[in-house]
Design brief:
This protein is of the alpha/beta class. It has helices at 15-21, 23-36, 43-55, 67-76, 95-102, 121-127, 147-157, 214-223, 245-256, 258-276, 305-317, 347-353, 367-383, and strands at 60-64, 85-89, 106-110, 132-138, 160-164, 172-174, 180-182, 189-193, 207-211, 228-230, 233-234, 298-301, 356-359. The longest helix has 19 residues, at 258-276.
């Protein structure tokens, strides 16, 4: 079979092009920091925190060094006893478990929903015990988990709700009451990552925590800075986890363009939806009508792992990059064997690891490039039906 060639090189994420469009503003932001000499806790850090908080509807924002630290700090702020249980979805990136494990807490895994891939509220409720200290809701791939059900469970049981919002910055959730809230601002604490590939990505590492509680915000700020209430006065055991001034300055520039970038991702997703919905064996991302979707990833599912792997290989030969998030469920990772989970305990998560495939869906993907990706998917379906 003679394979086609893409009209221009296709990337899973084109950060070089994204930054080229912003180059003058990024250069000016860097110059200002260089001239100030305030590389740690400079003015841009507080300015970025305020601007991001305004974007998120008035949340208090505490910048930190990375997304994993944000998760760790969120749990640390709860002052949970040793080996308290933290309920975590079995289909997530390992950092969600890692934060709990590093603090001497016990990750308790539950399965996810087969359509949205989000944590299953019924499984969460069944996993609550007197030892449960927190529920970690992961807003996977750009869409909110069921915050209505999870907030109700947390309130009813007195368990803290933490939101891992590394992949859904700017997404919103509409509650039955009509209330609309940004992802990451509903629970006690929300977290995010500014890893370069994220929808709001730094040019290095970074993270942040969100809360609507001013007292908790003050605590988080202390915990992220060695537990200091003032210089050389330490009220808590904390971390050295600060977003540096250069990254904050660059993120201020990129935050201004986040709504347009999100709209670009949504437009790409809409074109995929229209073209792929009728291709046999390809399931497009499910939408929860209560949540907006900011498409950190556009993730299709295939009926079985062999077909997924065959499609990924075919697309690679066509010059179309793809990625599997995630190829191995967290309970199957050797580092977490001590939790004692066995194969088959989380069937949805395990099936998804063999079924998911993320396509190029960045906001600078051209319609011509996307049409080529779609034609390759169609060709695969035609020859493998």
């Amino acid at each position: 079979m003679i394979l086609p060639a893409p009209p221009s090189p296709i990337l899973l994420l084109d950060l070089a092009a994204e930054h080229a469009a912003l180059q003058p503003a990024l250069d000016e932001a860097l110059r200002e920091v260089m001239h100030s000499g305030a590389f740690i806790q400079g003015p841009a850090v507080g300015q970025f925190a305020t601007e991001l908080g305004d974007y998120l509807g008035g949340a208090h924002v505490t910048p930190c060094a990375n997304g994993t630290d944000a998760l760790t700090l969120a749990l640390l702020s709860l002052s949970l006893p040793a080996r308290a249980e933290v309920i975590i979805p079995a289909f997530t990136y390992v950092a969600t478990l890692e934060a709990a494990a590093l603090l001497g807490l016990r990750p308790v895994l539950v399965d996810v929903l087969p359509n949205t891939f989000a944590i299953d509220p019924a499984a969460v409720e069944a996993a609550i015990t007197p030892r449960t200290g927190a529920i970690m809701a992961v807003h996977l791939f750009g869409q909110c988990a069921d915050l209505g059900a999870l907030r109700a469970i947390a309130a009813r049981t007195g368990v803290a709700l933490i939101e891992d919002n590394a992949q859904a910055i700017g997404a919103t959730f509409r509650f039955a009451s009509g209330e609309v809230a940004f992802a990451g601002t509903v629970g006690e604490v929300g977290t995010t990552s500014f890893f370069p590939s994220k929808n709001l990505g730094a040019l290095g590492d970074g993270g942040a925590l969100f809360t609507r509680d001013s007292q908790r915000a003050a605590l988080l700020q202390q915990l992220a800075n060695h537990g200091q209430s003032q210089k050389y006065h330490h009220q808590h055991i904390g971390l050295n986890s600060r977003l540096d001034t250069m990254q904050a300055a660059l993120l201020r520039v990129k935050l201004k363009h986040l709504p347009a970038a999100t709209a670009g991702r949504q437009a790409v997703a809409a074109r995929y939806d229209a073209a792929l919905a009728t291709i046999p064996g390809v399931r497009i991302p499910a939408r929860d009508p209560r949540s907006t979707h900011v498409f950190h990833q556009y993730t299709i599912t295939l009926p079985e792992a062999a077909r997924r792997d065959e499609l990924q290989h075919f697309l690679k030969r066509c010059g179309v990059p793809t990625m599997v998030y995630y190829p191995l469920p967290v309970h199957a990772q050797p580092a977490y064997a001590y939790l004692g989970y066995q194969a088959g305990q989380f069937p949805v998560a395990e099936r998804l690891c063999g079924a998911v495939l993320s396509l190029p869906a960045h906001p600078l993907l051209t319609e011509e490039q996307q049409a080529y990706v779609i034609s390759c998917l169609t060709s695969f379906s035609d020859t493998h039906s």
